[in-house]
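Morning. Coffee machine broken again, so started the prediction first thing and wrote up yesterday's gels while waiting. Chain of 102 residues, entered below exactly as on the submission form.
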Amino acid sequence: MPIEQQSRYLNKYVEVEWVDIVSTAGWEKSEDTKMPIFLSYGYVINYDDEELRIATTKDEEGEWYGFTIMPVGVIKKISPLIKEGPEDYYPSNWTNSAPITT
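Came back before lunch.
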């Protein structure tokens, strides 16, 4: 995918549909096995010709944590779920000082 298309996903919250490897060591027939498809969710922090890197947590200093890193060859589809990244929802000086109410 061209770099300009990859960059449109940066800092976006996405759903990634991807296919995983399956290996058997038993007596399964070929037609009874299939590669599983999974969905992962996170903010895109890197997407290049080799990998897609999403993260689930960002601290108050802007550092990302909770990574899922996958080779681009396993990705079937990327769907943005919201248009903005988390920085568009909270000001840079935001702290969780408000009381929690239920």
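The chain has one helix and five strands. Going to sketch it on the whiteboard this afternoon.
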